[in-house]
Design brief:
The complex is a heterodimer of chains A (342) and B (649).
Chain A lengths: L1 H20 L12 H34 L17 H29 L8 H4 L4 E8 L2 E6 L4 E4 L1 E5 L4 E7 L4 E5 L3 E6 L3 E7 L5 E7 L11 E7 L1 H14 L5 H7 L13 E4 L14 H9 L44 E2 L1
Parallel strand pairs in A: 1-5, 4-10
Antiparallel strand pairs in A: 1-2, 2-3, 3-11, 5-8, 6-7, 6-9, 8-12, 9-10
Helix pairs in contact in A: 1-2, 2-3
Chain B lengths: L13 H23 L3 H9 L4 H30 L9 H35 L8 H20 L27 H29 L12 H33 L12 H34 L7 H14 L15 H29 L8 H24 L1 H7 L3 H31 L5 H27 L16 H31 L40 H8 L12 E3 L5 H17 L3 H19 L6 E3 L1 H11 L2
Antiparallel strand pairs in B: 1-2
Helix pairs in contact in B: 3-4, 3-5, 3-15, 4-5, 4-6, 4-8, 4-13, 5-6, 5-17, 6-7, 6-17, 7-8, 7-9, 8-11, 8-13, 9-10, 10-11, 11-13, 11-14, 13-14, 14-15, 17-18
Classes of the chains: A alpha+beta (342), B mainly alpha (649).
Chain lengths: 342, 649
């Protein structure tokens, strides 16, 4: 009797977490923008097909186990049966058809996600995507608004209904920018730039994080996304421009020291000016290690008894007394290239 | 490396201290027992220097069980840390080391040696051979694996474990971001074990092609032999890539090359590609033999020939080809072009076609059969629904555009545990229980075995099914803790409970080994289950004599032993004995591998003189081996008669 129930009990397991999770929709299936919507649609389509396959196999298995288990009069026993052209053809062709059915929307979505989401209104069509450079540093996020000339640490504001073009790179380890409510992730890699389009259609605060393991502080590499009405967003930009301190190269280089950002209570900060005046990590992967050298930071064995660092102050480093501005303007900053390797 | 003397042995962590003490006590106990019972010489002559594929198989399996225990403890530590938000059971650094070693150990030092152990024991018997093509190499393979495993395992007490994940992605794994000896252990231990695996690949590929008994054409081989053959082919093509990639990263870390580094225009993403060019075929290296084991068991206990044998062969060959064409799906999110992602999406989904064909063929092997629910059969039956769940989520992951949302999350973690546990681990249990009487002369107790089975399978689903939902709710893999407001607490707690159920089932399984050794009745024939279909059951005694077959069997069709029984032929009736040529034991592989271990240990800490002494030693043992003219010995007809007569008592 127990054997008969086995596949059924497995189905029960299928249902159990569904019931538990039933109180709230999982983040990925509760999209707040067009990119996440496309992905959620694709996921739900695939779940329907997959559940059908699972059901077919479970039912077949149950029937076969019940019907052909060893019993006294095994009159149905046919040991000579060892193949069937018809059946084999059926279960080769059906999976092929399913793969084709799933491949078409997959490929379409892959191509569609390479572009900014289609604007819904005519006035939105005239707007370019908002460009934000998202730079991952062990273990914090730096968001750079080049047109607004401001920079934030561990949080960002975006206007709703407008595509955001994230230019992703990393100052050190490979990370992945992921805001599940707005869409899937993409890698941040030092010496390269990748592009990720996202868009929020609802005002709200969303969780974002690094999804790719980067070592000790990986847990803490999270950020908040504030999706605001256009006017509120503009207000925030102005506030930052008016009140935030000027970003200095020394301050920025200190961000490059591995660690969680704890200079403020809530672990966030904002600056006037951007680090792009000195370094674009997608064009120069060496910079972080050079900054460590300048500041006197040395990587230490995690099991070392003494892990203290003797960092130099700004006055002790002549490098910071000079102007180190780099001009990237002649290079094509808005290149359509993906993961271009310098 | 400027390692201070007091940083050599890891101190200051109660968990590690506990492990150190238990390893020390365990070691003393083993040494004392061997000395007290005067077993040192027996151990060395009968086992450690043995070239007998059966003994090597058993040693592989014992090591794998030990590693299942170690990797399992790692797993339980991970689950304990994640049971509730904000747990302080492991700090992030310790957690990173634990999940990194969990991955490496389970894949490379548990799954592979377990399967290679079963292949070692069974395949030569199934093809009617007396040993493998290169018995000496077989011993060397075992020892390189063992030394690699030992080196990797000591890392957590000496110097510190690797902490960059089992994938060892650069630039995180470079000196700047993973200072200390940890990642060196990873590189050198896997390197040594990998050489052994490559030799196994060559050895068994040649064995299966060249040493089949009379009448056994390729299309008359058992499905386990077929899957082993294809697995070896994948090993031969995939492992050199790993060897080279590991060597490159080793050069980066030890000798200052800039291949995968941030500085000097290194290309860290090249490592990611090379790793998965090996890593994806590796997945099929650990799943194809599992498919073979399930095929054997399902057909045995359904008392029917495997359904659609030819289609099964075509499927595994197709899978092996496709396995080399899908590696990019491990990093769809790297910003590849839409063309590349589309291509690799489709090739990945295509793998589900031959796999689906296999699932239906297994189901229809049982159609109109006489199914008996023995423990190995239960494991094989549980494989089907669980693997299908793992498989369909694999198809979902293959859809690149959706994968951007699953990548690096618990959805993925759950998927690969579903395929690797219900595929590989279930197969290891099923195969071990099924062939246990062949190895040890008695069966494992069925009742205790069924308890272990149910607790494990239920625990497995309780542990991993909730993780799909955690993934969809945005929980990334490899985080060491989370916040209460993330809303992942309940499902994580359920998952942890499931993990401990699996741990309990493992303990019951191990207890069963002891219990059955004490109380199970000893088998009197070679065909322990009475339903054997292939030649491994055609031996005179339950445990085959060291030469396997007194007279090599002749094969006329599929399922040759079943065929013989149907026709009333008795393999044992043929007493036309001739002297049998057998290979001699050798002690050089153990010594050579120990020297490799010594050299590697030196390199881990950058003590180059130790490395040089070890390397010179390796060459000296190679030279000694080259002048070894011992090409085996003959088992006399008298001895065969004696052994065969004793076997039927």
């Amino acid at each position: 009797m127990l054997k008969k129930l086995k596949p059924l009990s497995l189905l029960l397991f299928l249902a159990l977490p569904l019931m538990l999770a039933g109180c709230s929709t999982p983040e990925v299936l509760d999209p707040k923008g067009p990119v996440a919507s496309q992905q959620s649609d694709l996921i739900i389509l695939s779940i329907i097909f997959m559940l059908t396959i699972v059901a077919v196999v479970f039912v077949l298995l149950t029937i076969i186990l019940v019907k052909y288990r060893e019993r006294k009069d095994h009159d149905k026993y046919s040991p000579e049966l060892h193949g069937s052209m018809l059946l084999e053809t059926i279960w080769t062709i059906i999976p092929i058809i399913i793969v084709v059915i799933l491949a078409v929307p997959t490929v379409r979505t892959i191509y569609s996600l390479e572009e900014a989401p289609q604007p819904k209104t005519a006035e939105a069509a005239n707007e370019d995507p908002l460009v934000v450079h998202a730079t991952s540093i062990n273990w914090k996020w730096v968001f750079t608004y080049p047109d607004e000339d401001i920079e934030t640490v561990n949080y960002l504001h975006i206007p709703i209904h407008r595509p955001v073009e994230f230019k992703l790179t990393s100052a050190d380890s490979m990370a992945a920018l992921w805001i599940p409510s707005l869409g899937g992730q993409k890698y941040n890699m030092a010496g390269m730039q990748t592009t990720l389009y996202l868009q929020a259609d609802h005002v709200g605060t969303y969780d974002g994080r690094n999804a790719n393991f980067t070592g000790e502080g990986f847990n803490e590499q999270r950020f908040k996304v504030y999706a605001d009405e256009e006017a509120d967003y503009q207000q925030w930009v102005e506030d930052v421009q008016n009140s935030a301190p000027e970003l200095t190269q020394y301050t920025y280089d200190n961000l490059l020291i591995p660690g969680v950002y704890d200079k403020t209570d809530d672990g966030t900060a904002e600056f006037n000016g951007t680090h792009l005046q000195w370094i674009d990590h997608s064009k120069d992967a060496n910079y972080t290690l050079e900054a460590w050298d300048r500041l006197g930071y040395e990587p230490k064995n995690p099991h070392a008894k003494d892990k203290s660092q003797n960092l130099l102050t700004e006055d002790e480093i002549p490098y910071y007394q000079q102007d180190n501005t780099v001009d990237y303007s002649d290079e094509n900053m808005d290149s359509e290239e993906h993961a271009s390797h310098e | 490396m400027d390692l201070k003397w007091n940083e050599f042995i890891i101190t200051g962590d109660p968990l590690i201290l506990g492990a150190q003490i238990s390893i020390l006590l365990g070691g003393i106990a083993v040494v004392a027992a061997l000395t007290y019972f005067k077993k040192w010489s027996w151990l060395w002559k009968e086992w450690l220097t043995s070239v007998d594929h059966k003994k090597l198989g058993i040693m592989y399996i014992l090591s794998a069980l030990l590693m299942l225990f170690r990797g399992g403890i790692d797993g339980l530590m991970i689950r304990t840390q994640l049971a509730k938000p904000g747990m302080e059971f492991l700090d992030p650094q310790h957690y990173n080391e634990v999940f990194s070693t969990h991955g490496v150990i389970m894949i490379l030092f548990m799954a592979m040696p377990f399967l290679i152990g079963l292949i070692n024991y069974i395949v030569p018997l199934q093809i009617g051979a007396r040993d493998v093509a290169f018995p000496y190499l077989n011993n060397l393979s075992f020892w390189t694996f063992f030394v690699g495993m030992a080196l990797f395992n000591i890392s957590f007490i000496i110097g510190g474990s690797p902490d960059a994940g089992w994938t060892g992605y650069t630039p995180l794994a470079t000196n700047e971001f993973s200072p200390g000896p940890g990642q060196n252990y990873y590189l050198l231990a896997i390197q040594i074990a990998g050489i052994g695996t490559l030799m196994t690949g060559i050895n068994f590929f040649v064995t299966i092609l060249k040493m089949r008994t009379k009448g056994m054409t390729l299309m008359k081989m058992s499905m386990f032999t077929w899957t082993s053959l294809i697995t070896m082919l994948i090993i031969i093509f995939a492992f050199p890539v790993l060897t080279v990639a590991l060597a490159m990263q080793t050069f980066d870390r030890l000798f200052g090359s800039v291949l995968f580094t941030l500085q000097g225009d290194g290309n860290p993403m090249l490592w990611v590609n090379l790793f998965w060019v090996w890593g994806h075929p590796e997945v099929y290296i650990v799943i194809l033999p599992a498919f073979g084991i399930f095929s054997e068991i399902i057909s045995t206990f359904a008392r029917k020939q495997l359904f659609a044998y030819k289609a099964m062969v075509v499927s595994i060959v197709t899978i092996s080809v496709l396995s080399f064409l899908v590696w990019v799906h491990h990093f769809f999110t790297m910003g590849n072009s839409a063309e590349a992602n589309s291509f690799f999406s489709i090739t990945t989904m295509a793998i589900s076609i031959p796999t689906g064909v296999k699932i239906f063929n297994w189901l229809f092997t049982m159609y109109r059969g006489r199914i008996t629910f023995t423990t190995p059969m239960l494991w094989s039956l549980a494989f089907i629904p669980n693997f299908v769940i793992g498989g369909v989520t694999g198809v979902m992951l293959a859809m690149a555009a959706a994968d951007y949302q699953y990548h690096n999350t618990y959805f993925l973690v759950s998927h690969f545990h579903y395929v690797l546990i219900s595929g590989t681990v279930f197969a290891c249990f099923a195969g071990l229980i099924y062939w246990y009487p062949k190895m040890f002369g008695h069966k494992l107790n069925e009742k205790i075995g069924k308890w272990a089975f149910w607790i494990f399978v239920i625990g497995f689903n309780v542990c991993f099914f909730p993780q799909y939902f955690l993934g969809l709710d945005g929980m990334p893999r490899r985080i060491s803790t989370y916040l209460p407001e993330d809303g992942w607490t309940g499902l994580n707690m359920i998952s942890t409970i499931g993990a401990f159920m699996m741990g309990l089932a493992f303990l019951i399984f191990v207890y069963n080994i002891y219990y059955s050794w004490r109380y199970s009745p000893r088998e009197k024939t070679g065909d322990a289950w009475g339903l054997g279909r292939n030649l491994e059951w055609a031996t005179t005694s339950s445990i085959p004599p060291h030469y396997n077959f007194a007279v090599l069997p002749e094969v006329t069709g599929l399922d040759p032993y079943w065929d013989m029984k149907e026709k009333g032929l008795d393999q044992q009736k043929n007493t036309d004995y001739k002297p049998i040529h057998m290979p001699s034991n050798s002690s050089t592989p153990a010594i050579m591998s120990a020297l490799m271990g010594m050299a590697a240990f030196g390199l881990v800490f950058q003590w180059y003189w130790v490395g040089i002494v070890g390397a010179v030693g390796i060459f000296i043992t190679m030279i000694v081996r080259s002048f070894d003219y011992n090409d085996g010995y003959y088992v006399s007809v008298e001895e065969i008669k004696e052994t065969e007569a004793k076997a039927n008592k």
